[in-house]
Amino acid sequence: MIKDQHSLQSLRVLIVDDSQDDAFLTLRMLRKGGFNSIHQQVESAQQMRAALQNERWDIVLTDHSMPKGFDSIQAITILRELDPDLPIIILSGAIGEDTAVAAMKAGGNDYVMKDDMARLVPAIRRELNEAEIRRDHKRIQQASIAKSQFLANMSHEIRTPMNGVLGMASLLLDTELTSEQREYANAIQSSADALLDIVNDILDISKIEAGKLELDPISFDLPELAADVVELLSVRARDKNLPLYLRVDPALPRMLVGDPLRIRQILINFLSNAIKFTLNGQVLLDIRCLDVSNKDVSLSFSVVDTGIGIVKEKLNCVFEEYLQAERAIARQYGGTGLGLTICRKLANLMGGTVSATSTKDSGSAFSLELTLPVAGKPRPMPEFLSNRQILLLGEPNIGQNILDELLKGWGATVICGEVPQLDWLLQEDAATPFYDLIIFDDLALGNRLVQYRQQRSARLPLIYLPVSGERGEHRTCQELGIDGYLNHPLRIRVLDLLLSRLLKESFVIGRQVESRFTLYKLHDKPPAQLPHSDHKVLLVEDNPINQKVASRMLEKLGCWVDLAANGEEAVEKWRQENYDLVFMDCQMPVMDGYEATRRIRELEQATKTRTPIIALTANAMSIDRNRCLEAGMDEHLAKPISRDLLRRLLEKMHPVVRVAKQNG
After folding, report:
1. How does DSSP classify residue 214?
2. What's the pTM value of the predicted model, to 2 decimals?
């Protein structure tokens, strides 16, 4: 029974066949199957190409063999050239297996034998559904690419003026200011930093969604990475009078393989949120080994705070894009709601997971679980602490627990005591051992402990280790005769260096106070030589404010700076002067930085020299970096820039500059 005209599904079909009868039978079969077909019949390559270019079709049905040597393979080739997504089905009276395979490889979707036309309608419906799925997927991809491109463009447009704001604020803070002016300048820099964080979050989301964010696994020192992160955020915590602690599992292998930049990004995000939403109490970064083998280690990174917490009903949405648990909190504390989303996506890229637990008004714990390969041998335990007696003096707290666990893990015998027990703890009798070292957290005890040491003429090193350091305490320790001064968050490498130095027989007790600053001078390599005034730098930048920012920063670092406003001017100045370095903006009028770099590299072929060229650009994505390197640049520096960033880059480029000078 033929269906009612209004119930038939409309189908625009292009029939490629030299037989009118076969085409009629095909249309009849389609109508029986529920299709109201609008069709056109063609029988040559030229006719098919014209039909595809002039009309919109839902599907193509093609015979295999037609006059003048035209066949289904050629038809498929034409179709895929003009429309990669349009489905095509071969209808043939006789098609061999080899031909069918060749047709599928060429891009055909299916084939139906003319003596089995009952398969035609189901095949068409299936291919129409799959074509719709492909089109939906393509639309989503195109929308994602368009959004990512928009975000990247917006990032570029924002970074250019942001470079001026941050740079000028930094230069302003280097001048003589009244306290009121300094307060205003600091507020400008703080607000600009917050805006830059938002821009970076949005750019990261666009990279991830566009599939442009790639991991860079390398061998790295995880305890040092964690210490760098908490040290970076300790100033922010100290401003709120919040103790910030770092606990690293003693069983953790020191060297692991992973992407330290992305792990650092997640930890900074977790810790920044914890500090932001904690008014009193403390914040802890706790790194634990869940499982350790010779090949890899399963880790848990937990950031635990005593902050405002999150209600249970809102906890599930904290990792969603552009969402924060409560609007009132978002208004009070700020933020885009993107940071935790980025953490989740980065964790997934690394094969890990993120999670959160929280109690309203009691605090939260945000965790990252990750498995990483082990690099090299396990960290050796400090042998100098074996059988040493160490007294930890102070009120029980997280910091004392961390220190107790660490020292015991290194083989020391640890006795924990509080200040009211001091007289008993310092008695020298059979029940109380003599200590090799005392660590205390109350500076008021310093003088009393020094007197105790003098009365007994004991070689007893004293370490003052408060929750967080205060200005002037280092000087007070020196005046009292205290031997070591550290504070939380605790860096394992520094504690190791301090203990080994104080327990050496050659160390003179009470003469000088050792701290992380003095220890770094003893054990760290001296920094690379910085460029001096004889280094000639060409700064290529079209924005007048950014010209001032970059040139003043470079001059403060000892460079002689010449300016060019576009690529054409840069090439001409390069011809006339021997520059040691070129800082090249990328997007400029007249001639952009890419073309200018290529021109300079071409000219260098005749002189047999090479001038280091550094991209100084607001284009911050990895694809932008690759484009700069392909154009012949040596490094890529994304705006906004800082003097520290420029200093590190100049240190890195110094050997290259020196070699170029020698060759010149």
Report:
1. -
2. 0.61
